[in-house]
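This part of the workshop introduces the protein records we will be handling. A record pairs a protein's sequence with a compact description of its fold. Comparing a sequence with its tokens is the quickest way to learn the format. The record below serves as our worked example for the rest of this section:
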Amino acid sequence: MELLTGFIDIVLHLDAHLLALVQEYGVWVYAILFAIIFSETGLVFAPFLPGDSLLFVIGALCGMGSLELQVAMPLLILAAFMGDNTNYWVGRLLGLRLLNHPNQRLIKHEHLEKTHAFYEKHGGKTIIFARFLPIIRTFAPFVAGIGTMNYRLYLMFSIAGGVAWIGSLILAGYFFGNIPIIKDNLTLMILVIIFISLVPAISEFIRHRRQRA
């Protein structure tokens, strides 16, 4: 319970925690951010890591001068690209063996089923759309790998999705994160970003409940 409370506090006060990391670790904070974005997109057992809200706060800190935009943005685009592609090849080379392992507890099958349904609806564009959807973006490349999606096609969507996701959220934070009304209510803004990113999942859940009823 204490661990969960601590995680929620970090998510809701990303600005304070990230600023503290910048002050404590200096330039090494870029390596920490790279590892977080890489893990959230590249490791199927780490979909709980902050993504959208973290990128917005990174942009806001860039606007304040605490981080360098010209360093953070290309570095995190690279992290998202490498994570996505690592996840794809893990799915392609080891996916079925991981899922069928008798002691497998880390990968939730319902997350895979939701991602597969998303693929069925949106096809290859899922790789781009999934970037903006928590949990789905972690499992989409893994499912693409299991399904042996054409790698050249996957690569094209992966690059486009990574640039769109990282670029749009960091720039949103950079240009809007330091507007007084947003800066003074950043926790509320983080909650709004989290809610907006979860809207498609909530809508899908409601749709399934109605269909069952």
Observations:
- The two ends are 34 Å apart (CA to CA).
